[in-house]
Structures are given as structure tokens and as C-alpha cells.
């Protein structure tokens, strides 16, 4: 039996306070996550942070890796806990062993969280960056053809988002991975707008590295994310900054400079993580699993289709064409700039956002949104 949507919305108090259509920036914090955060903070306040903290923290981290692994569709040993998507993209971009003459390929739709690590690594290692210019209404075959022109035997890394934060387009990650693998390169995927919005299966995916956050579509706290590292690529990704968690069994080093990493992706974790955030994220994932991840993804697709249909019915709205979509819908409105539209809708407590280059209005539809949310958005736009 599917969850009762009213009951689900009651577990997300922020969606009662507004028309919450901006999960792509920050998802509403679930009551399950908030309760765990509060409980962990209270425990630290009253009992201190000494006895048993290390052991319980390791157990909590291990459980959370397992939770993220189920979201990503991979083994827990292929998951490193991070602070956010950008953290994971930096780990993937900086850990690659570049050679003279190597290139990185990216594109004009990328978020700075994926783009800036590429630019910084290129500056540090004297690499060439090829930026594929994409149009907002790009179809899949044209998009692939543009990447085919850029990727070549010198391409060491292809850095790309699974879902564009600007247009909402779902990119064909496996076909892009096949392209770069054919030339001997690797692919790092920014999953900021996909993790928790669409079903992921790294076991069948051809991605090498895949980074997701906790605070968006998973409705968790800030400061927690995860990086998937394909177990067959551990030898291709160096540790670039390290600490106690980066060691095998916590003590596998000596003063001569020898140190041994764990067998899996945990080697890319560095230091102490804020325990209340760990607890909140773990509790939040368990709540989503209780709802049923299949239901979450199916409901997100259903309400996104409803959103696109509602917006398409407005004569002044011009939707961005996306053959496949996750939870984002981007568009323009005749006669008003995206930023002005967002500001005026916010006056009616309808919370969306605008994105730059190209200037678009962006709406995020997630499992907790109901048809009334979308109807209010439609009415608000019609009244502009």
C-alpha cells in the first residue's frame, strides 16, 4: 500500500509553511532527521563527547555508508562519506594521475561545484580543458555528437552532471561513459540533482565516480554527502588529503612515511564529521526507506509530469525540452525576467528559483509535493 501523502507531508513541517518547490537547492528537513540531530546534540551536551564517542561514531558512519549504498545502488565498500557533492567531485578530480598532454572534458551546463575543481586541477597540472557548449533544448543525439567531437585519446577525465541544474535535462551517463572509456579515460558524475530524485544503480552503471549530497532530494542535513568509487577504479584514484579515517584499522602507518589505506572507498574520508549530521542523515534515509524508495521515485516522476503539464497549459510559458526528466522543470515566461518572476511568486509564498546562463525559472517537484502545490504555482504565474 502506498503511503498517505498527507501523513508524509506532516513529517516535513516546512512544506506546511509554503509552496515548497525548490528542493533542487535545499530539500525540506525531515522530522526524522531533525529528531536525530536534536537527540545527538542533547546527548553531547549532557553526557559529553568522550566515553564511547569513537566507537559509536565508527558504527554510525558504517551504517550511513550502507544507507547511501542503497541509494546509489552499490556496495557499501564503494562509498566514501563526504561533506557535499562538491567535496566528492574534488576528490574524484584531484585524485586522478594526470600525464603531460592530458585533457579534461566538461560542458557549459555544469554547476561550479563540478566545474571549478576541473579548472583548478587544470591549472595545477597544466591540463587542457575542453568545454562543450550545450543549448538549452539539446536533444540526446545532438548532445552526444558534441561530446564525441571533444573527447579524444588525450581525454583523461570527463566531468559531467547526471541532471543539469540549469535545464533539468537527464544526460545519458552510460553512453558518455562508454565514449570516454573507449579512449581510455574516466568519468566523474555530479549527482546533485539525481541522488534521491531518480533511481540509481551503480552496479549496472558505467560511471567510475558519482557524487551526491544529503541536503537536497534526500531531505537530510547540510554537511553530509557520499562519493561512489567503482571498486575497479580504486587504483586509478589517489588519496590526495588524508587523515586517521584514511588508514586501514586506524593505525596502519609509521614514522618512515609508510601507511596503508582501507580496502574500499573509505580511504577517501579524512577526519571527524559532525555527529549530529551523521545521525540526522542516517535517520532520514531510514525514513525514506520506510516510505519505500520505489514509491519516492515513482511519486516524484508523477508530480513532475503533472507540473510540466500544468506549466505547458499557460500560454506565456516556454518549457525547456527534456526527453527525460528527474524532478527539475525549467522554463521562461513571456514579458518577465526569471529573477523578477521568482521574487513576485515568493510574495505569495511560492518558493522556486532562477538559474543563470541561460536565464531560466526552475521548479523542483518532489515526492511530498501535491497537486495543490502545482495548481498554486500555475495560478501564481497566470497572475503575474
Task: Report on the architecture of this protein.
- The protein is α/β, with parallel strands linked by helices and 384 residues long.
- The chain folds into 2 domains: 247 residues, Aspartate Aminotransferase, domain 2, CATH 3.40.640; 91 residues, Aspartate Aminotransferase, domain 1 (Alpha-Beta Complex).
- Helices cover 39% and strands 15% of the residues.
- Helix 4 runs parallel beside helix 9.
- The chain starts with a helix and ends with a helix.
List the main descriptive attributes of the protein structure presented here:
384 residues; alpha/beta; Aspartate Aminotransferase, domain 2; Aspartate Aminotransferase, domain 1; 2 domains; seven-stranded mixed sheet; four-stranded antiparallel sheet; 12 helices; 13 strands; 15% strand; globular
Amino acid at each position: 500500500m502506498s503511503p498517505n501523502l498527507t501523513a508524509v507531508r506532516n513529517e516535513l513541517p516546512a512544506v506546511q509553511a509554503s509552496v515548497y518547490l525548490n528542493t533542487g537547492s535545499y530539500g525540506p528537513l525531515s522530522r526524522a532527521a531533525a529528531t536525530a540531530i536534536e537527540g545527538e546534540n542533547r546527548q553531547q551536551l549532557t553526557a559529553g563527547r568522550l566515553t564511547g564517542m569513537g566507537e559509536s561514531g565508527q558504527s554510525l558512519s558504517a551504517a550511513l555508508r550502507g544507507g547511501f549504498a542503497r541509494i546509489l545502488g552499490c556496495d557499501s565498500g564503494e562509498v566514501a562519506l563526504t561533506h557535499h557533492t562538491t567535496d566528492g567531485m574534488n576528490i574524484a578530480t584531484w585524485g586522478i594521475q594526470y600525464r603531460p598532454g592530458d585533457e579534461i572534458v566538461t560542458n557549459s551546463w555544469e554547476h561550479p561545484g563540478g566545474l571549478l575543481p576541473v579548472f583548478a586541477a587544470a591549472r595545477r597540472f597544466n591540463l587542457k580543458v575542453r568545454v562543450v557548449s550545450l543549448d538549452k533544448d539539446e536533444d540526446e543525439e545532438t548532445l552526444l555528437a558534441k561530446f564525441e567531437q571533444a573527447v579524444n585519446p588525450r581525454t583523461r577525465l570527463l566531468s559531467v552532471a547526471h541532471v543539469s541544474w540549469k535545464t533539468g535535462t537527464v544526460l545519458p551517463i552510460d553512453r558518455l561513459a562508454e565514449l570516454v572509456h573507449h579512449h581510455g579515460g574516466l568519468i566523474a558524475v555530479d549527482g546533485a540533482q539525481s541522488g534521491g530524485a531518480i533511481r540509481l544503480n551503480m552496479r549496472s552503471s558505467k560511471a567510475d565516480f558519482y557524487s551526491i549530497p544529503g541536503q537536497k532530494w534526500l531531505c537530510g542535513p547540510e554537511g553530509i554527502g557520499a562519493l561512489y568509487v567503482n571498486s575497479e577504479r580504486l587504483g586509478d584514484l589517489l588519496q590526495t588529503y588524508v587523515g586517521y579515517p584514511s588508514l586501514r584499522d586506524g593505525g596502519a602507518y609509521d614514522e618512515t612515511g609508510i601507511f596503508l589505506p582501507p580496502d574500499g572507498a573509505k580511504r577517501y574520508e579524512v577526519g571527524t564529521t559532525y555527529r549530529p549530521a551523521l545521525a540526522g542523515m542516517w535517520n532520514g534515509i531510514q525514513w525514506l526507506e520506510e516510505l519505500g524508495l520505489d514509491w519516492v521515485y515513482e511519486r516524484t516522476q508523477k508530480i513532475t509530469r503533472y507540473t510540466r503539464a500544468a506549466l505547458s497549459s499557460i500560454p506565456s510559458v516556454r518549457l525547456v525540452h527534456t526527453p527525460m526528466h528527474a524532478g527539475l522543470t525549467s522554463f521562461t515566461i513571456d514579458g518577465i525576467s526569471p529573477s523578477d518572476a521568482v521574487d513576485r511568486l515568493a510574495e505569495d509564498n511560492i518558493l522556486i528559483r532562477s538559474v543563470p546562463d541561460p536565464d531560466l525559472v526552475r521548479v523542483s517537484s518532489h515526492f511530498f509535493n501535491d497537486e495543490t502545490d502545482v495548481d498554486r504555482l500555475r495560478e501564481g504565474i497566470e497572475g503575474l
